[in-house]
Amino acid sequence: MGLRERIKQRKLNWNIILLLATIGTTLGAGYQFSIPLVNEGLLSSSLQGAATFSLGLLTILGCHEMGHKLMADRRGVDATFPYFIPVPFFLGTFGAVIQMKSTPPDRNALFDVGAAGPIAGFIVLIPLTLLGLSWSFPVSLEELEGVMSLPSPLLLNWLSNSVTSIPAKGDLLLHPLALACWVGMIITMLNLLPVSTLDGGHITRALFGGKYHRVISFAGAGVTFALGYWLFGILILIFAIKTTHTGPTDDVTALSGSRKVVALGLLAMLIVCAAPVYQSLIP
Length: 283
Prior knowledge:
two-stranded antiparallel sheet
């Protein structure tokens, strides 16, 4: 095995190690989220809740990142396999990333790579959310005392109305799978923000070119603060200040008309997944 092959194998080993670590941390997070449901007699096993949370969340994240990877391969862009990011608290992960090792050949390729991830993740997010909501628990307001409320994306509201019957004076306790899908919606929203080298940053760079990309990045950071995600807003503001998007090799050829239509769909996806923190699942 040559030096280049050994380096690639070592990097792939890190992909696998981080994936296994993230499976462990998301199982731990799902277990903790499941304990109150088991104590209330709503869920039979914390292990079952842990498994569905972990599997659901990693499926959404994995499909999102593999959408980027497969599209990058198709468009001739050298990109890594996904690196999952485990954390030993709260949700168990900060998501996953791939790294582009070469420059996209043109704006169309840059757009395709940036858009493929959110689209792939969204495709699996819908059926998983419907399944998770169908397993969730409609309860009265009295039963919701002491329960943590969550900001509610429009998409989650629409889907919950289609598959569950919620009491007039009550709401919905999310099954761990539905909670994983809620996380997937938040990650989709944040990734689609038009900032720096986030997915939305790639898309706006392909749409508007380098001249307006930096200005749009600062506007995207402002939207993040307006939604109430202060910590993430600070991070992406730092990215917007310190990171310059290099753009594609051919930065002259305009983006195709069909991709501009897709961009409108991606904007709609951002809106329906948006969840201002001052809103709540509990009235």
